[in-house]
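The following record pairs a protein chain with its ligand, guanosine-5'-monophosphate.
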Amino acid sequence: MSYDSNNIFAKILRGEIQAKKVYEDEFALAFNDISPKAPVHVLVIPKGPYSTYDDFVNSADEAEIVGFQRAISKVLNVTGVTQTGYRLISNAGMDAHQEVPHYHVHILGGHPLGPLVCK
Ligand code: 5GP
């Protein structure tokens, strides 16, 4: 999937759309999902222009990849879900119903999440 710089998360990164920021460093921005599916529902996005996990891992340099993973861990600690448990999800492409074509990781937690559901 080629990267579309007009996507909503690119606009949030450029400050053109507001989001409730949870964490930021040189590699990542984390903010609350606008339509939360759990008491904790944070989206973590890399600052570079990547559309999916696969694009990110194959296109980003090692510092970005490591920095992004560490940023996710920081957000897990900021939100407190390391104590009670959490789920990380990254949707990619049509079958996963990826809505926003900028690579992102959902952090879900804050209550029992139930089993992973696949239809
Ligand atoms: P996807 O289906 O692409 O994995 O998930 C995209 C997520 O982005 C959805 O959970 C949706 O609620 C969230 N989202 C869409 N537009 C906005 C927005 O403008 N602001 C924020 N904070 N979240 C958004």
